[in-house]
Amino acid sequence: MRIERQEELVRRLLAPLERVEPVTLVSNDRGRRRRRSLALAVAFVVGAGGLAAAAVSGPLNDIFSAAHPRSAADVLDPGTAAMLRSDEARGDAFGVRLLGQSRLLGTLPMRRRVYLVPTSKGRLCVVVERLAESCGDPLTQAAPLTFTVVDPDRAGRGEGPVAYGVARDGVVSVSFTVGGRRETVPIHQNLFAFQARPTDRSFSAPTVRFADGTSETLR
Amino acid sequence: MTVGADSVRVRVRLGLRGLPPIAAGDRGDDPPAEQVGELFVLHERRVGRYLAQIVGDRSLAEDLLQDTFHDAFRARAQLAQVRNPEAWLFGIARHRALAALRRRRRFHRALTRLERGFGWSLEEEPDMLAVRDLLERCVSPEERSLLVLRYLHGFEASELAEMTGRTPEAIRQQLSRARRKLVAAAGAEGRLSKLDEEAGA
Fold first, then answer.
1. What is the per-residue pLDDT across A198-217, written as a single tens digit (0 to 9) for each?
2. What residue segments make up the domains of chain A, in order of their start?
3. Distance, in angstroms, between A28 CA and closest chain B CA?
4. Of the four listed, A166, A189, B43, B78, which is most buried by Cβ atoms within 10 Å?
């Protein structure tokens, strides 16, 4: 049989497989996925997590900016999704990042988007598009704020460290001491950020102020 | 309060005091990350289809797609030396798929000792299932992968050679063997005459 005829037959034999629907990178949000143990880049959630094991959607509760039906805008871009999977491979205890439940929280001045991503173990990850993620227990009344500080240039060099995080509904501002100064940063759409000076080395425990006027220092 | 930072990934650029948030950074010192991201956007569906075609099981294919992108992301430094990024990405997917098929084959053998029958988990139309069944019985996973990449995704032998690390000539020979096996099996089962009938109709 001539090669051309053979190739034509093979193409026709295989043709039904052309109708196979592709799988996609972000379609899998099942908790049953096999997955390497997970890792975390940087960060922590301030305060003790007093919440018992949460349901999958639980970590996004009480964050109004994330309380909307999932739309195309909430889908992580493939690069960010790959970044999270890469972090997972380093091994951590937070569970599989449920990419199919991500929610866009806001867009940064540098046009980086901030997402919230729950995990299969009921944890909450704050993801900065193609930059970083920080994971921890879900927000509660006792621990209503994530507080992450990054300083890639190391203290005293380059630009100063940056603090950022996500607050639960009802938190209106966060205060802390850095470099001997007391700073207060308002919460906008459940999100805050603060750029410290290059010489600033450490932040005090933050104090959150609630809409009812009360405040609480987180340990 | 301690602070963690990943000095590789995080590069803080800006900062406004207070709001609007947020201090952000980029991967300015890691341009391949952006390139891999763009590659994903361009080829995600094709790679996703290829994996679903090869392994048949959608949940496994989804896992493999995640793994593929994960591997690609980790190997992104190679991109600077890659002539055909698309073939590079498919090569990673192929490697993942074949490893999964080998694992499944071992599992399948163990299972068939216990009971007959281990069907595809996809809910597919009969003609798709028939093709998968034929491929599984007649050609090796390696050959199946090459046939799908060549005849459903249009990769040339030279591109397949890049993916597999073999010579184009070796790929042509392997494709030739796979074609012969597939056509012979299809002929023995009366499928070729059916194809001709369909073509005639």
1. 888 788 889 999 988 889 88
2. 2-54, 72-217
3. 7
4. A166
